[in-house]
Amino acid sequence: NNSRQWWKEAIIYQIYPRSFKDSNGDGVGDLKGIISKLDYIQSLGVTAIWLNPIYSSPNDDNGYDISDYRNIMKDFGTMQDFDLMLKEMHKRNIKLIMDLVVNHSSDEHEWFKQSRSSRNNPYRDYYHWWPAENGKPTPRWSFFDVNSDAWMYDATTNAYYLHYFSRKQPDLNWENPKVRQEVYDIMKFWINKGIDGFRMDAFQFVSKDITWPAFPKGYEKNIVKYYGMGPQLHTYLKEMNREVMSKYKVMTVAEGAGSTLKDAHDLVDHDRHELNMAFHFEVMDLNNNGKGYSLLKMKKIFTKWDSAFARKGWVSIFLANHDNPRMVSKFGNDSPQFRAVSSKMLTTLIMTMRGTPYYYNGDELGMANIKFDKIEDYRDLATLNAYKNLVNKHGDLAGYLKGQAATSRDNGRTPFQWNGSANAGFSTATPWLKVNPDYKTINAEAELKDPNSILNYFKQVVALRKSTLALVYGRYKLLDAANPDVFSYTREFNGEKYLILLNFKTTNAVAAPGLSLTHNQLMINNYTAPPKMGNNNNTIVLQPYQAVVYKL
Ligand code: TEU
Q: May I ask which residue range the UniProt record assigns to the signal sequence (predicted)?
């Protein structure tokens, strides 16, 4: 696993384009906005960008419902803007990873319009249809549908179509070789433009058992087990690898890694010729109700995944993305007292684990959850449809809103906070989603000026990661495993060794890594004063959320 690859050494910055920077005053971020901020992104030290979907879309799910895979969404600009953006990124040695959303298309895609028009249309088999004269199809649960029903009746041809996500996101039929060829052609189209990789959206769901077996009661609580890793998934991936990845220099990362370590392994074992790496969600599943989590569990999960991939395969390391609340609110502490230190501590974790770090835009400022209290403020269809569902069922709306304030995806999607001027400098118009009112103090301009800011700390840790192969490839070893407050580990490579100590608590905590700690070089510290030694040279007293990296 020490074979050097750019995508292992990369530090990937995720941009949510809708919320990054609006250049034309319509309240929505766009490609020209991104171009105008490339110097900022370069100054962070990151080496690649993963961009959420920018293709033509009616935006039922903010671009995850694509109506034309070879065009740019009107809100975001033009293909010329794209070409310029890519050129400007490459000029700065920043690679571009695009989202590939092919489990489903938009219902406004030409394929679907054809497909739904008649039962013998040549595009009929591009999607999954169930003739209504055969009765109701086997129930399937939908992530986003108001009724949670993934089968939508369509009167035109008296049939149901399948949509795991919203009813405007019909699932493509991967059993159809023509569909797969279409996808490979789309991939080649973007590769020929010069992009460097794909993040494969919901890809673990593409292969379905089209005998539609019934699932046991409550299966939707364990959806990846039932929807993930369908019978033909690996066959399709091998075919895609043959047709596309083996012929071009392009990296691929799967969103989702199945439900077992073996599933994940099978996706990214390089001898199997499928994908390069995968995002697993076990860490993200912690605190998914906003009520807290156990550090001991987190340590176990990171350690388990690291050991499973120590010899072969590669994973992504991340604590946030556009489908989650803000990193500092979910895993740290967004109170005024601890927001900065806990953000920095979490950043240190991401940048010192083995695996490619993916860092979500705005987290370098310590952006926090907006915590809306009214349904009117939300834009995410996931929140809105679940709310409607509850209204229909006369459920507990107040309780639901309280939960969403901590967990909704919109928490992670509020506009990027550039400066203290109106709308945080994101746009001259009213933004599509409210700006977090904390922008007066939490913004890029203010933080650039403050040497102790979260932003400047982020740059420092990124620089260390970039210049330290041990932090990329080095062997990971958990120390002081039973310590409920402190996460301690070493990374070791070619005779170089680093010790990382992270306090996850709001109080002082004692780290006991079991190493002699004299004469070590302190490389990173999120406090100004060096940490205090304990009673002997084997322990260190860490302040609340303190993070330190030593070179041993
Ligand atoms: O999300 C797919 C999705 O359902 C996962 O986040 C899922 O929760 C996880 O794999 C379970 O472990 C992707 C996009 O990231 C999201 O923004 C889209 O809404 C969705 O696909 C539909 O395209």
A: none
Ligand 1 within 6 A of CB of 323:
yes
Which is the closest atom of ligand 1 to the Cα of 103? 23
Strands 277-279 and 316-317: unpaired
CA of 323 to the centre of ligand 1 (A): 7
Distances (CA, A) of 115 to 71, 156, 386, 549: 21, 11, 28, 57
101 lines ligand 1 (CB under 6 A): yes
For ligand 1, whether the C-beta of 478 sits within 6 Å is no
Positive or negative: CA dihedral 41, 9, 189, 129: negative
Tokens coding 393 = 């069922």
Half-sphere exposure (Cβ direction) of 399: Cα atoms closer than 13 Å: 6
**pTM score > 0.95 for this model?**
yes
Assigned CATH for 473-551: 2.60.40.1180
Are 110-162 and 473-551 the same fold in CATH?
A: no
**Catalytic residue from among 22, 61, 201, 263:** 201
- pLDDT (0 to 100) of residue 534: 83
| Ligand 1 and 263: CB distance under 6 A | no
Query: Which residue has a Cα nearest atom 10 of ligand 1?
Result: 256
Strand arrangement of the beta sheet that strand 496-503 belongs to: 475-479, 486-493, 496-503, 547-551, 521-525
Q: What is the pLDDT of residues 267-323, one digit of tens each?
A: 999 999 999 999 999 999 999 999 999 999 999 999 999 999 998 999 999 999 999
CATH number given to 110-162:
3.90.400.10
State ipTM. 0.94
What does the domain layout of the chain look like in residue ranges?
6-104+178-371+416-460, 110-162, 473-551
Interval 449-485: pLDDT, tens = 999 999 999 999 999 999 999 999 999 999 999 999 9
The response to whether residue 154 sits with its C-beta less than 6 Å from ligand 1 reads no
CATH architecture of the domain with range 6-104+178-371+416-460: Alpha-Beta Barrel (3.20)
Q: Ligand 1 mean position to 313 CA, how many Å?
A: 23
State the closest ligand 1 atom to the C-alpha of 144, by its place in the atom list counted from 1. 19
What is the spatial distance between Cα 524 and Cα 489, in angstroms, rounded to a whole number? 14
